[in-house]
Amino acid sequence: MRIGVITFPGSLDDVDAARAVRLAGGEAVALWHADDDLSGVDAVVLPGGFSYGDYLRAGAIAARAPLMRSVVDRAHAGLPVLGICNGFQVLCEAGLLPGALTRNGHLHFRNRDQALLVERADTAWTSAYTTGQRIVVPVKNGEGRYVAAPAELDRLEGEGRVVVRYADGNPNGSSRDIAGVTSADGRVVGLMPHPEHAVEDLTGPSVDGLGFFTSVLSSVVTA
Amino acid sequence: MPRVVVDVVLKPEISDPQGQAVLGALGRLGHPGVTSVRQGKHFVLEVEGTPDAAELRQIAETLLANPVIEDVELHLPSD
Amino acid sequence: MPRVVVDVVLKPEISDPQGQAVLGALGRLGHPGVTSVRQGKHFVLEVEGTPDAAELRQIAETLLANPVIEDVELHLPSD
Amino acid sequence: MTAHPTSPGTSQVGGVPQLDTVELAATTADTEQPYAELGLRPEEYQEIREILGRRPTTAELAMYSVMWSEHCSYKSSRVHFRHFADLPASDALLVGIGENAGVVDVGDGYAVTFKVESHNHPSYVEPYQGAATGVGGIVRDILTMGARPVAVMDSLRFGAADAPDTARVLPGIVAGVGGYGNCLGLPNIGGELLFDDCYLGNPLVNALCVGVMRHGDIRLAKAEGLGNKVVLFGARTGGDGIGGVSVLASETFDAEGPAKRPAVQVGDPFTEKLLIEACLEIFAADLVTGIQDLGGAGLSCATSELASAGTGGMHVDLDTVPLRDSTLTAAEILMSESQERMCAIVEPAKVEEFLAVCRKWDVLATVIGEVTDGDRLTIDWHGERIVDVPPRTVAHGGPLYHRPMTRPADLDGLQADAPPSSSADLRADWLAVVSSPDGADKSWVTEQYDRYVRGNTVLAQPEDAGVLRIDEQTHRGIALSLDGNGRFARLDPYTGAQLNLAEAYRNVAVSGARPLAVTNCMNFGSPENPEVMWQFAEAVRGLADGCRALGLPVTGGNVSLYNQTGDTAINPTPVIGVLGVLDDVRRRVPTGWRADGETVLLLGE
Ligand SMILES: Nc1ncnc2c1ncn2[C@@H]1O[C@H](COP(=O)(O)OP(=O)(O)O)[C@@H](O)[C@H]1O
Fold first, then answer.
1. Which numeric CATH code is attached to C3-75?
2. Domain at A2-222: CATH architecture
3. Which of A26, A27, D59, D264 would give a disulfide with D386, using CB separation of 3.0 to 4.6 Å?
4. CA distance A153 to D104
5. 223 residues of chain A, pLDDT tens digit each
6. C35–chain B Cβ distance below 8 A for any pair
């Protein structure tokens, strides 16, 4: 099972995402933003970081990279895509996920161990969890406040597109405590928290994040 | 060289914590007359030759601003 | 209610990594005609009663901008 | 009619502006030069004239003045460093004091380089950018050694927590440290946050970076190999941080000339991240023979140090330097402290490959000169020679002061301070201690720092030492602690420095690591004050004696002087960093009780 991890200029958590893929039992394939083709991978992770320094808007410039055209095309055809933090911002900027991520309500970068509730355990990236499961993974961002027009938020909630929600406090002022959302077909998922930082006892607050990476392995097998 | 100015502002329904923080500071510093502050971005572009209004509008609306949350004001040199 | 606009721009001699990044993106996206981009801040203030120009200038120059690295352009309603 | 402003570096000859060339300098010995405004003493200026056998050109004067400044030459502090040099040799030390950062063997073929540096004054002027560029500078020092930077730490001191100016500088400095380090993808694994009135007009920002490499990857800052190219890469050169040499401008600019250049530098962490990745790829492909980062004194420093450490000379064509501001003069280009730049020495056959790596990472790279035979550093501008100097005299020939020292007159009084005489006094003292902001929860600060990035952080805030894994297969790890206490050092700088060392050493030891090496940042007042100079000398001696007792080498560090408000110096503040190694990082020991029923033991006296 080959899972691509895209490196944009300024990507930071690409090494972590690749490690998480390996620990889950997959093969991590390094992809470069300036290439055109996805090297035949079975799924793609857009990692965290500060692509292009997060200048202009977080994720805005990376969303226009050559490789993103392939990601968008293949995602429409069902390729599983996970965007973590900056990757989530890129997916929103690229139009694959609804809404936008803006400056945190308290205006600070905030890094802490965050409790989340899994609301959708049937996406390509969350099938290892159970609905309502509580997990703890790190969150760290300065522009992680999820926003959309109220009607759009109603629609997303109505369609069950919220994948994970912040529990025990909202770290950035996101609308309705939304931490992550999915595409209508459940194949594309974006979230601000960092499951790839919760995959080893030695370095993480838990190993709760591993499920994202094991989920996709089984979803690709069954797809 | 022609200069084009693009102002990007948050849509009114999107909350603006930066503007709120400035407003709070103004109150504390004794400027109660200011009743609202919104913070946006201000771009100054220099363009070679005659600016192409359609191209600049596209740049402003698709790259400089995120239409999901932001509005754009374009000021061409002739404005 | 009177609206006052304040544009805050980096002093010309201060480097502007954000503007540089936008310029780079414009080049890659096929807009070579844009030869320079500088990014600043755009504030829209609403003021009660008649705006006091001196007070607003002071607000702009000391709170909205960092005079060490930024310049200010103040647009009063009468402008 | 508006007159064209004359550029600095030119002189008027018969009304025609003329570039101040080496040739001109040789024939105009009497031209008055603003050496005093540039901070040079008459005897220093005289010495430059003797070295060159003529008066310096404007560009040369600028180079010497900035390289012979306290900041670059350590002219007041250097004589005291023999205490560190005299420490017994350590088997673990691969590169010692003198290079950009020391390098330590941590086993399994791994080498670790680490260093702490101050950015105090810039952070007071512009807190966010000052702190940000402080992190950027120390990271480039580590990168220059050939290592991948893997973590940062920061040691901060402010005036009283409730003072208005603290509310101005503290949030900006914390955001700047976080903004730069987070964007580079370097976990912050610890530091300090302390408050004392003495820092109100002079906060301290000391940043540490640590990097990891294989033994064979160590790079040095030297220009060798006749015909090898000098490549400048990274950001364009602008008018940043050349406040000092603006007197050259004011001398010749009329009222309509360009404004005084800003002393503030703006950091661009994104460009630095690209520089890191490009450099590591360049190192891996073995494309450089020598490398130096551009920090204080910019190109003046990089060219003279590279040439001085090498075997030959160097020639630079200044017109090739990519500029952000086309009005810069030669002297300003040489002085500019624009951030995120590096200088490499590359064999001609490897230049194309070098440039290709830079293109891949969108890093601007330009050949600006080459290594020559002979022993001169020569620089041309507009086709004329404006610099022709022996590089060692610029880089290392600076003056050496033996400043007078006296024990502070108030020290006996301070040391005699009596213990509390009544239980009410004791109660007041106790309350003061427990309610001090120094002991408060630091999470408002540490939550603004990414501690997780790269996935190797084993311990970080709120632990006493930061612990990192450096190898996922062998589980080898390192531990670091950064500690300083200005109040102890004020009472007794010799013992105070040792207490700081002991604290950092203990913090590393209790994490389960074996302490290996020491770095330090000495923050003091004006060296022209004999009492401050005495504090400095005592602290250095104390640290050296402490290291001897513990069997640790001092691998490098930084001295920041003139930390004072008016005539009042800060408390002498030696900040000490200790590095340790864990053969198996899984056996690290966190702080605090873990489970009910554990036995509590007290060790020591
Ligand atoms: N400026 C800072 N940067 C990073 N970490 C910091 C900073 N200040 C304090 N810390 C961290 O916060 C924790 C608590 O700090 P402190 O209260 O000084 O600890 P202690 O009193 O145990 O020395 C430590 O892990 C320390 O490394």
1. 3.30.1280.10
2. 3-Layer(aba) Sandwich (3.40)
3. D59
4. 55
5. 999 999 999 999 999 999 999 999 999 999 999 998 999 999 999 999 999 999 999 999 999 999 999 999 999 999 999 999 999 999 999 999 999 999 999 999 999 999 999 999 999 999 999 999 999 999 999 999 999 999 999 999 999 999 999 999 999 999 999 999 999 999 999 999 999 999 999 999 999 999 999 999 988 665 5
6. yes
